[in-house]
Amino acid sequence: MSTHIQAPQGAVADTVLLPGDPLRAKFIAENFLENAECYNEVRGMFGFTGYYKGKKVSVQGTGMGQPSLSIYVRELFQFYDIKNAIRIGTAGSVSENVPCRSIVIANAACSDSALQTQRFGINHFAPVPDFELLDKAYHTALELKLNPIVKPCVSSDRFYDERETWKMWKKYGAAAIEMEAAELYTLAAEFNRKALAILTISDNIATGEKTTALERQTTFKDMMILALETALKL
User: Fold this and answer.
1) Is 157 exposed, middle or buried (0-12, 13-18, 19+ CB in 10 A)?
2) Are the C-beta atoms of residues 24 and 64 closer than 8 Å to each other?
3) Mean pLDDT of the chain
4) Is 96 exposed, middle or buried (0-12, 13-18, 19+ CB in 10 A)?
5) Which of 16, 81, 97, 131 is most deeply buried (CB count within 10 A of its CB)?
6) Over the Cα atoms of the chain, what is R_g?
7) How many angstroms separate the CA atoms of 123 and 68, rounded?
8) Nearest Cα to 191, choosing from 113, 83, 68?
9) How many Å apart are CA 234 and CA 220, to the nearest integer?
């Protein structure tokens, strides 16, 4: 057991899906996994392990923001030796060309987080996913006719940003802003594991477009299925 994940050894699968919302982890376990068992309830951050089409898969909530994700992913890597970590979360588009309901597979993750400064000082680390995992997810998305967008995202520590820094990130080619992927990719590099962020666009900062609650629920399912189908190929 680790400090924040009270699971015995062997309870967590090699491949773990990582939604920020622990209730989304519960939803996936109840609707997509067979024989799912809850291995963690500490601080309400649910974790489950079950089977998807015969493949053992876990799903673990991480909370919002890079500091929260950092705790859970580090413990999964360090204490449970997981091999593949796939974030499934929402993001805000910064481009008119990336509308709501799009699925973005993040091929890099820029960041404004002090976590990077604490690690690297004046140096600049480039957080990127595992290419093999990205390639599998991309081609799986094509098979599912999901028309994925493969572009960098931005992992920001600020949800409310009156400075509108999204305009700068848009200029440099980012597709969307979220709050976790850069730390996930950095930890995967540190522990030599495979990681990927698959994101659903829930709102568009550039145009003001937003999805309804029903639309978000439907689109989230596409993202979940993409992650699970990708897990089958690992």
Assistant:
1) middle
2) no
3) 96
4) exposed
5) 16
6) 17
7) 23
8) 83
9) 22
Which residue of the set 14, 112, 203, 222 is catalytic?
203
The closest of 113, 135, 126 to 196, measured between CA atoms, is: 135
Tokens of 19: 């939604």
Residue pLDDT, tens place only, 2-28: 889 999 999 999 999 999 999 999 999
pLDDT of residue 217: 63
203 belongs to the catalytic site: yes
The span from the CA of 116 to the CA of 107, in Å, is 18
User: Rounded to an integer, what distance in angstroms lies between the CA atom of residue 186 and that of residue 158?
Assistant: 19
CA distance 170 to 178: 13
Helix pair 213-231, 22-32: axis angle to 10 deg: 70
Give the pair of three-digit tokens for residue 190.
């540190």
**231 touches 141 (CB < 8 A):** no
CA 222 to CA 90: how far, in whole Å? 12
